[in-house]
Amino acid sequence: SVSGSLSASGAGGAGSPRRSGCGGGGGGTGGTLALDAPSVKITGILAANGGGGGGGGGPGGDPGDEGAPGSDGRLDLQPASGGTTSASGCGRPGGTGATATVPATAGLPFTTTTIACPQVAGGGGGGGAPGFIVIASPSFAPGPSATISPAPLLP
C-alpha cells in the first residue's frame, strides 16, 4: 500500500555557466519504479516524470550571464519547467519535462534575429522523457486520490 509518495523523477538540467555563452543541460529522464506484490493499493503518488532542461547563457565576456537550471520532475501531472531566458535575454529557455499526459519539449535554439543579442549565445536544453512505472500484481487497486505518472505498465 502506498499512501505517501514515491518518486523516480529526473533532475533538472544545469543552466549554462556564467560568461560561457553555452547551451543549457538536458533534463534528466525519469527512472523506474517497480512494485511486485500479491496486492498493491495506491492512494498516494507514484511519479517518474522528466526534469526540465537548463537555460542557455548569454554571450561570453564581462559580465556575461548564466542560464537558469531546469526544475526537477514533479510529483503531479504538471510538467517540470525549463530554465528561464538568461538575464540579458540572449540565452534561450530550456524545454519542459514529460509527464503522463504531456510530452517533453525541446529547448529553444539561439537566434540572431534580435539586435540586443549581436553575439552567439546558448540555446536551452531539452526536457527529460518520462520513466517507467511497473506494477506486477494480480490485485492492483488505484484509489480515487491516486496520482500515477506516467501510466503504469501492468505485465
Could you characterize the architecture of this molecule?
With about 160 residues, this protein is mostly beta strands. It has no helices and 7 strands. The radius of gyration is 19 Å and the shape is rod-shaped. The mean pLDDT is about 90.
What is the helical fraction, as a range of percent?
A: under 10%
User: What is the topology, as strand order, of the major beta sheet?
Assistant: 1-4-7
First-residue to last-residue Cα separation? 19 Å
Q: How many whole angstroms does the radius of gyration measure?
A: 19 Å
Largest β sheet strand count, sense and barrel closure: 3 strands, parallel
Unreliable parts: none
Oligomer: single chain
The overall average pLDDT, rounded, is: 92
What's the helix-strand series? Answer: EEEEEEE
Total strands: the figure is 7
The shape, in one word, is rod-shaped
Defining key terms:
155 residues; 3-stranded parallel sheet; two-stranded parallel sheet; 7 strands; rod-shaped
